[in-house]
Design brief:
heterodimer; A: alpha/beta; Rossmann fold; four-stranded parallel beta sheet; 4 helices; B: about 350 residues; alpha/beta; 2 domains; 8 strands; about 35% helix; globular; binds iron/sulfur cluster; binds FE2/S2 (inorganic) cluster
Chain lengths: ~140, ~350
């Protein structure tokens, strides 16, 4: 029997909102697929494009960047800077032929445990038909 | 038309007055039709200067070398250096000023307008002429080039051998200068992002196949980086050195020595290098086309930078190198920056 493809998602979550949101999903015992490896960072504005590219290089099938809603960033402006930078990363990845579904960004507040579970569910569903991400995976 | 005599006159006068240490311009490369950079220190050397469609190089790169040289000297000559710039090159100076890498008083800018034409692209030229026969290329009337070969002179429309970036250029007059030679001519030969059009209609897989084929050719000679006026980081991310991990190596040391890009010229590392470079040039690249010109394996690097330029312009209304007082593309935001893609 062929094994079902289980996409691996790396999620960069800001500490103050999105990570707290994912925690809330956990403590509220909401169910979502176990395909995601969350990495807490201080702010979405601290996510360097290098993080995203290395996640893909180390074999992520999808990468999620998530921060506080505009206006809610703990550091006031971090997510606005992130929005610009991530736009550029997203456009560039699509330009070189990476499936747009593989890289996503979201706003998740500390109260939005339910939204977080939905995002992960949808993400997994979108990644399944694409199969493993091998384009940027390390050849070394 | 810009007169070479005017350029020479200006250079002579600033050297005479001792305003500059030396001038970086263009001179003929012996009997070859192409120009090479010229470093003019003495008044009599100004006679070597030339101005023709082979003045392709972005001489702003040498401002970095000058800065490093000055830092090493105990008692440096603090006078500025003169540099001859075209429209695109002048915007590179603006970016360096914006990033506070150089100071305005470090450079005396001799701006030369491209008026109705621009510079040549050797690849296009080679398709039409046997390079060996070419003696000289000059600006002709209107937007024509005059090509001298053994058989005599031929006049061709500049567009036939103009560099792609010049055809797309909509900023052909220097935007910052101490003296401007030539006239400001509004001209646009094509859509500003014409070269990207062919990517719009192709599928994700076709895009990938294109870039895979191109970037797999890269031998990581870093010529593209060496020639780029914006690649001045003290430590490039592509050069991350290996860290010998010893029992007393701290976590912090390890964290600071992450190797984001390995040196081997394999597909994944080539992609890393080029994606990071494109992102680091976003909002900074002024499309002088030097990276693509020097690539020994003809990778069309301009497209990557052009794509970033396009997004900066269309989504954020930002063009690199127009105003050194404004914040850089990624050091700024607007409340209503587009965010349709964010869930
Ligand atoms: S890109 Fe524009 S400014 Fe630069 S050489 Fe060509 S025409 Fe001149
Ligand atoms: S110049 Fe060409 S081959 Fe050399 S590193 Fe740049 S892209 Fe690669
Ligand atoms: S702290 Fe959440 S985005 Fe800045």
């Amino acid at each position: 029997m062929e094994e079902k493809f289980e996409p691996k998602i790396i999620a960069f979550l800001c500490k103050w909102c999105s990570s707290a949101g994912s925690d809330l999903a956990g403590v509220s015992r909401m169910k979502y697929p176990p395909n995601v490896v969350p990495i807490t960072v201080m702010c979405s504005g601290s996510i360097s494009p290098n993080y995203i590219l290395s996640a893909f290089k180390d074999g992520a099938d999808g990468v999620l960047v998530s921060g506080c809603h505009p206006g809610d960033c703990h550091y006031i402006k971090g997510n606005y800077y992130a929005r610009r930078r991530i736009t550029l990363v997203k456009e560039l990845l699509e330009f070189i032929g990476i499936e747009p579904e593989r890289f996503q960004m979201s706003w998740v507040s500390a109260a939005e445990g339910a939204k977080y579970t939905e995002i992960i569910k949808d993400f997994v569903k979108e990644l399944e038909p694409l199969g493993p991400q091998n384009k940027l995976r390390s050849n070394l | 038309m810009v007169k070479l005599d005017d350029i020479k006159k200006e250079c002579k006068s600033i050297l005479e007055e001792g305003k500059v240490k030396y001038i970086v311009g263009y001179k003929r490369n012996n009997n070859y039709y192409m120009s090479i950079p010229a470093f003019i220190e003495k008044i009599e050397e100004t006679d070597q200067l030339i101005w023709d469609p082979t003045c392709v190089y972005n001489l702003v790169r040498f401002l970095r070398d000058e800065k490093l040289r000055k830092e090493r000297q105990k008692t440096p000559d603090t006078r500025p250096i003169g540099v001859i710039v075209k429209g695109c090159d002048s915007r590179a100076i603006n970016v360096l000023l914006q990033e506070k890498f150089i100071k305005r008083e470090n450079v005396y800018i001799i701006g030369v307008a491209c008026e109705k034409s621009g510079v040549i692209e050797k690849k296009k030229l080679r398709k039409k002429f046997n390079e060996k026969n070419i003696k000289q290329i000059e600006f002709g009337k209107d937007n024509n080039f005059i090509i001298t070969t053994e058989k005599g002179k031929t006049t061709i429309s500049a567009e036939e051998i103009l560099a792609e970036r010049c055809i797309e250029c909509n900023n052909n007059t220097p935007v910052i200068y101490d003296v401007l030679l030539g006239e400001k001519v509004e001209r646009s030969l094509s859509e500003h992002f014409r070269s990207l059009e062919k990517f719009e209609s192709i599928s994700t897989e076709e895009k990938w196949n294109f870039w895979k084929k191109e970037l797999d050719k890269c031998i990581r000679c870093y010529a593209c980086r060496s020639v780029c006026p914006m690649c001045y980081c003290d430590e490039c991310i592509a050069d991350s050195i290996s860290l010998a991990v010893k029992p007393d190596t701290t976590a912090e040391e390890k964290a600071q020595k992450i190797r984001w890009v390995e040196k081997s010229p394999v597909s994944s590392e080539n992609f890393s290098y080029h994606l990071i470079r494109a992102l680091h040039l976003a909002g900074r690249c002024i499309d002088c086309g030097e990276c693509e010109r020097v690539c020994p394996v003809d990778i069309p690097l301009r497209y990557l930078n052009k794509k970033m330029e396009k997004e900066a312009s269309e989504q954020f209304g930002y063009t690199a190198g127009l105003d050194p007082e404004k914040p850089a593309l990624v050091s700024d935001f607007k409340d209503d920056d587009p965010q349709d893609f964010i869930i």
